[in-house]
Amino acid sequence: MYLKHFGFSESPFSLAPDPRYLYMSERHREALAHLLFGIQGDGGFVLLTGEVGTGKTTLCRALIGRIPSDCQLAYVLNPKVSALELLATICDELGIPYSKESRSSKEFIDRINVALLRANAAGRKTILVIDEAQNLADDVLEQVRLLTNLETSQRKLLQIILLAQPELRDRLAKPNLRQLNQRILARYHLGRLTRAETARYVGHRLAVAGVQRTLFPSGVLDRLHRLSGGTPRLINVICDRALLGAYVQGRDDVDPRTLNKAAKEVFGEEPGRFSRRFLLPWTLVTLAFAVLGGGVAAAYFWSGPKAQLDEASPKVSVQQAPEAAPEPQAAPERMAASPPPLDSGVEMLRPARDQAVDNEAAALAEVFRQWQAEPVGNRLKTACRPALGNGLRCLAALGTLRDLETLDLPAVVRLRQEGGADFFAALLELQGDTADIAVNGKRARVSYETLQRQWAGEFAVIWRGPPGARPEIGLYSRGEDVAWLARALAHAEGKEPLILPDGNVFDSALRRQVIRFQSAQGLAADGIAGPRTLARLAAMAPGERPRLVTATSQ
């Protein structure tokens, strides 16, 4: 109704998931990275928690779009079932035949085990995703845990991802569920947007819908953040209603009074009372809107727009846009959490287009070459696995250029270009305000500003890790990799290594040291030495290795 009045080409705050409206906060990037780690693992649980409307299901949809072709997926949407009904649902999802009169859990598990063994023999991995997992009864959670006992002598046959509201974390801490809790390999809690992220989220959706002028002044955005608590779904609902109210009044923007009235209609309470009683009043409302669709637009990772250019050659050019292009915006800060919009009025890195070259494979080969190694494939989804052998590991993640500076490792990166497909490049060096990039084997030096502008937020790095192939090291882990962790932390802090219990056990003292290191490095301080923590420690270890950042840029 208000589209023509404001000049929108389409509704900017629709609840329908649309990849064009994707805004990934730093928390969403990290959460998706944890899910991607989950599908690359060799069995166990990955737990993603978050309040209603923060984007858990949307991130899972992004994950589903990223699942390699050699994986099969069982997706449970309605977990309010008995243990037998859950097993039957898994069979339905995986196409496993069973008798409708089956009443024995053993019969279901035997059939699932046979199917998983066949899939494993054929080189296929099986992933079970359970949404709204907080609705699982304790006996059903125990049945889910027992499914991880299906294994060969080399690996677990089933990787399980649980998406849940925060109350599941409290339940898992109880003694009767401790066995399941101990099998969680990675966990992440998805928080709400900050005030700054709320403003960028709103601005992004307005711009995609065709409007770049200010419709929500700064003070109104402050109020919006307080009313919504930074929950994307609630931001959409309130903004949509506020724009309708502004249209009815004939206004060109949303004022505080209109926003308050919109929020009152959404929540059914007087403005000003929502933030004090935030968790309860909007729960029923958001459950109703949940029927209509997800809150944040569906995301994609490496499987988004095809990275391979239809026409590309081993040439790289740094071009200036025509003089008629709009005036460029101010250079983004180096700590910016999200890449700015492409601006055709400034320097741009583009692959030339005279012959077809696979730039994804070329970028992989270039980064592996820094480690004097050969990639195991020409696609990130196959070549970038947590453990590559010979002590090498691979981490594919989402983040900022600052994240890469912290890791200090050469990287495969996805870059955007004006009017063309995304493309892959090897980022080999950051020196002051410039960056050394290789596309299709041809190197070029570009400004940091250009790299930041074309940054798509996705990267992969190679690093040399501790002994063994365990993707993360947590409390009560034991072995040589725990001893390596203690030595690496001691070196990073300039201290003597902790004396570990017999068997090199990861104890509470080591966990406190991990948290201290993570906090100092700007990493998620969860006390678990996951891929990013291990990669950073490896980067700080003594010895020769490829480096991304030169001394002049630090």
Describe the model.
With 554 residues, the chain is of the alpha/beta class. It has four domains: 3-16 and 193-290, Helicase, Ruva Protein, domain 3 (Orthogonal Bundle); 26-190, P-loop containing nucleotide triphosphate hydrolases (Rossmann fold); 316-322 and 340-464, Cysteine proteinases (Cathepsin B, Chain A, Alpha-Beta Complex), CATH 3.90.70.10; 480-529, PGBD-like superfamily/PGBD (Muramoyl-pentapeptide Carboxypeptidase, domain 1, Orthogonal Bundle). It contains 20 helices and 14 strands. The chain has helices at residues 3-6, 26-40, 56-66, 83-94, 105-121, 138-147, 167-172, 178-182, 195-208, 218-228, 232-249, 256-267, 283-290, 359-370, 380-383, 401-407, 448-454, 480-493, 508-521, 531-540; strands at 44-50, 71-76, 125-130, 159-164, 184-190, 316-319, 348-351, 387-389, 392-398, 411-417, 420-431, 434-439, 442-447, 455-464. The strands form three sheets. Strands 8-9-14-10-11-12-13 form a seven-stranded antiparallel β-sheet. It has a five-stranded parallel β-sheet with strand order 2-3-4-1-5, sandwiched between helices. A two-stranded antiparallel ribbon has the order 6-7. Strand 11 (420-431) and strand 12 (434-439) form a beta hairpin. The model is unreliable at 271-315 and 319-346 (pLDDT under 50).
